[in-house]
Amino acid sequence: MIPIATIKSGAIDWKLGFHPQVDFPREDIGFIGSLKRAVSETWQWNVRIWDGFGRMLSRKDKANLTGPIGIIRIAQQSMEQGLQYFLLFVAIISVHLAFFNLLPIPALDGGRLVFLMVQQAIRFFGGKEEWAIKSEMVANIVGFLLLFSLLILVTLKDLIKWIF
């Protein structure tokens, strides 16, 4: 492996070994333009996530879940392609995790929001809150156990795929 030096925008970019030469387009769009693009791209990723989630639930596409081991392998592959790819991968993972966390599933923030709305409705109509609090506690325990079971199954699937 030989270090390769390339000059980009007046700066020397060192790479070790063989790497694809892919340039991310750069344009000077200013702070407001960057903010608009960030919001637009985040929105587009969320639309893709919802579309994929819907396709998975309607069985049009096979569920292709990966756990921590698979994420680490994909992160390693993206890092091998360059820092820009790795940062893009980290951004995509962040959007996916935020989306997943806001799903109305007990033990996640989205489930907590649902229970808060239910508690507010109970307060509004003069009901007792103890039932809502106890049901939230049970639902969170069940939701946590189901999510943890899913994590174990997906991790085992990743391990089997990695070993074989």
Describe the structure.
This protein has 164 residues and is mainly α. 68% of the residues lie in helices and 7% in strands. The protein has five helices and two strands. It has helices at 30-57, 68-81, 83-101, 109-124, 129-163, and strands at 3-8, 11-16. A two-stranded antiparallel ribbon has the order 1-2. Helix 4 (109-124) runs antiparallel to helix 5. The longest helix is centred in the C-terminal third of the chain and has 35 residues, at 129-163. It is extended, with a radius of gyration of 22 Å. The model is unreliable at 16-20 (pLDDT under 50).
- What is the number of strand segments? 2
- Count of helical stretches: 5
Rg, Cα atoms, Å: 22 Å
The helicity comes to 55-70%
Give the N-terminus to C-terminus distance in angstroms.
29 Å
The major sheet is characterized as:
2 strands, antiparallel
What overall geometry do the principal axes of the alpha carbons give? extended
Strand ordering within the main sheet: 1-2
The proportion of residues in beta strands is 5-15%
- Which structural class is indicated by helix and strand composition? mainly alpha
